[in-house]
Amino acid sequence: MNLLEQQLHYPLGDTLPAQGATVAVASGVRWIRMALPFALNHINLWLLEDEIEGQRGWSVVDCCISADASRTQWEAIFATQLGGLPILRVIVTHMHPDHIGLASWLCARWNAPLWISATDYFVAGHNILHSSGNGGPGAAEFFQKHGLTDPESVAKIRARTGYFSAMVPALPPSFVRMQDGQTLRIGGRDWRCISGYGHAPEHIALYCSETRVLIGGDMMLPRISTNVSVFDVEPESNPLQQFLESIDKFAPLHPDTLTLPAHGKPFQGLHTRIRQLHDHHRDHLARVMAFAQQQPCSASDILPVLFTRQLDLHQITFAMGEAVAHLHKLWVDGYLQRTRGADGVYRFNPTALAYPESAALEPSEAIPVSA
Ligand SMILES: [Zn+2]
Known about the structure:
Layout: E1 23-26, E2 29-35, E3 42-52, E4 55-61, H1 68-81, E5 87-91, H2 97-100, H3 103-110, E6 114-116, H4 118-129, H5 137-145, H6 151-159, H7 163-167, E7 176-177, E8 183-186, E9 189-196, E10 203-208, E11 213-217, H8 239-247, E12 258-261, E13 267-268, H9 270-292, H10 303-306, H11 313-332, E14 336-340, E15 346-350
Parallel strand pairs: 4-5, 5-6, 6-7, 11-12
Antiparallel strand pairs: 1-2, 2-3, 3-4, 8-9, 9-10, 10-11, 12-13, 14-15
Helix pairs in contact: 5-6, 9-11
């Protein structure tokens, strides 16, 4: 447990659901933990007791990637954890492969509808058709513009098409829209949709004020910081600003809220975690600014400023997106300006606007992951 985690409370201690089993975490809510074949080695999914049009059953939140191992884990859940009741609805917080991958299979298997934000439904469809984000020609060109010019890495990124569709082969042909402020009636309780930006196009978290439970998805993780990246499909975006504004939308929730994160363990200390995430990014922004004051820098130049660990190519693609996100916030806020060199690389250097004195810099705890 790191220093920041010690400021949070894990009410279930070190309890984890075994493969194919579930753990009750709140009234009407059960926790499923499935293995993922990445550095981020698991995802949490949730089973909610439900009743729709007189039919008792379950709503599931998030699906895991499409893979034989995930389907096997689901079959064990179906056989032993549903009490003979059906899955009535599949809710997906956002369109990343570990969350939406098996939605098509689950919906078809149970003849259940998919509930998701419209933005994420359509972006997922776009990504299935046009490999974008971490691989393909568009991503390679985008990372080159931001200083990742080593020919071997560029060639590997360019060749890495089909990354998304391998884990998300299909979508259900229709969906039910979730949007900010809407209330879902699940198992006789109201759950409010809270939209979040900066991590996914339109992430939806769910909050039940009656039981003080927040299904936070990837917007509120206890241990790792959520990946916040600029991608080639929206190259001028400012996702770090969006993310910081979005997590403040959780601030009005009850201090005792039990947050159910997509990665890590259920925790209390939501307001502490919001503050930690602000501190973390403020610290990163200050480091980037201090570095840029020494010499004009590209996103590639600042990777060692943000990430102290050795990164493999997969992690570099996420780290690059995150580095651009930090530069873009400082650029949009007016502290940095951007010029494109004769080599085609964007470099950032300070404007005349004074950067506010920041808190003392602390060692980075950031881990670039695909969450
Ligand atoms: Zn995600």
